[in-house]
Target: Core-binding (CB) domain-containing protein
Amino acid sequence: MPQRLRQRRRADGSWRVWWEPGKALAAAGWKSVELSADKPTWSIREAEKLNRDVDLARAGKTPARTGGRSIDAVIQRYRAEAFPDLAPKTQKSYDALLRLISAKWGEDHVSDFTKPVIYNWYQALLRTGSPRRAQALVRMMSSLMGHAELLGWRSEDSNPCLRLKMRTPKPRKRTASWDEIDSLVQAADALGWPVMGQMVLFATYHGQRETDLILARRADFRRQDVQLPGDASPRRLWLWQLTRSKRGTEGVLPVHDACAPMLDAREDLAPEAPIFADPVNDAPFNEETFQTRWQRLRTTAAEALPSVATLQFRDLRRTFGVMARSAAVGRDDIGDVLGNSAARDPLLGETYMPADFPAAMRAIGAITRPAKGPEKRKA
Model:
């Protein structure tokens, strides 16, 4: 058995296996490393490697473990191997989390992380920030630990981030009223940016994310005669065929009658032309330029209606769902439009449900403005 490799039977009958540096090495900064009783060959190999690192350190050389299997090394491999399968917006979100993790833990060895270490970090994050950010960072670290297992840098099923009993952040519930939607549209016209108002309406009536609107091209839309159940004759509709950016789910959505004129005006665009272009320079939007325009639009609209100041563009997706439910549309039908399983998981609503065109038609067609009553005559 390698030097410093230890094992002990726990009270529940399972075995703890670990590498123990001893007092002298601990005083020099070495830490105990948890190994796996279920992987004896791997545990022996890891203990032998750690002993070689000790010998190198005593000889005045840099141990291989310092940089070879650090958190920064896992991050580098994760970016190279996992990022290509992620949507650009997800990559950007993950990259921000990875930078924070690197700043905190970059030089630490992946095998040094135990459940108590992660739990104490999570509690510290809760004390200094929001539960949502704390949860996001621990989940990102969990992905790194899982990737380290794939690389053979940690034993299988040793992820210390699992089953921490983290708080579930309260989901955002903000939706837009029709007055707020109208205020945004009016502000867009006042700024000379009518396309921004059209994007607000398109998101409200169809429940899709801003990225999917940014990526929408003329070739994604076509006119077609559609025979719906119960109709005596086909209806001429605009159809939107999209692959949703976040999950890669595909769908074909009918365009709401209120938005059809927007497409009528764009019918002669080139196939690859964006349906919604930046009103400042007529170039395709990216996430940064869209958010810049949105913030300016929201600030302008809030001058007339202050409540708009707390609205985020993503709230329009939720607005679609709430309005459809208020019109007695079933959760399954709404889920078909959103491209998720809102019917099955009301909290997350992020599991793919195959699109069903009649269901999408029912959900989108149910979004209507409330009827205005007759104006009262002045006495």
